[in-house]
Amino acid sequence: MATIDLTPLYRSTIGFDRMASILDAAMRADTSNGYPPYNIEVLEENRYQISLAVAGFEESELELEVERGVLTVRGRKAEDEEKRYLHKGIAFRSFERKFNLADHVQVEGAALKNGLLVVELLKVIPEQMKPRRIPIGGNTLRTIDGDGDQSKAA
Question: Which of 45, 4, 48, 52 is CA-nearest to residue 28?
Fold first, then answer.
């Protein structure tokens, strides 16, 4: 696999540490085995849904956790020692699946129905991040001098 040096990017950006760590993580080899399969849907402009196929798992055997912008879904299936199988073709193996969430994306809730774990996500954009119109006005600008005093600009 080719290696890409992102050092010049780090030198010229300030405050994008999370983006850099996401790029680094994406560059590493994906060690997941593809289990369980999942879909990511866009429901509306700022609403998303992750659906994971977790047939055979009960709510008590599933765990969702969000930490530092990473949604982790874990499934732990307890082995049933009492059952004896002639053939066991249904995989009830434990799993862990991680999803990197963008800034301001929150997990709204989750539900298990018909073997699908559905996780609802909402992107909440803070007011200061939304575009706003700046009026061009008269002499209302204020400047701050070196002593911290404010004076009106002429």
Answer: 4
Locus of tokens 């699908």: 116
Query: Could you tell me where the DSSP H helices lie in the chain?
Result: 7-11, 17-27
d(CA 143, CA 150): 6
* pLDDT tens profile 37-68: 999 999 998 999 999 999 889 999 999 999 98
Span 10-36, pLDDT tens digits: 666 666 666 666 666 666 545 557 889
pTM value is: 0.65
3-state secondary structure of 60: helix
Interior/surface letters 84-93, b for 16+ CB within 10 angstroms, e for the rest: eeeeeeeeee
Q: Which residue has the higher pLDDT, 122 or 81?
A: 122
Beta-strand relationship, 150-152 and 142-144: antiparallel
Distance CA 128, CA 137 (A): 21
Judge residue 100's burial from the number of C-beta atoms within 10 Å of its C-beta, 0-12 exposed, 13-18 middle, 19 or more buried: middle
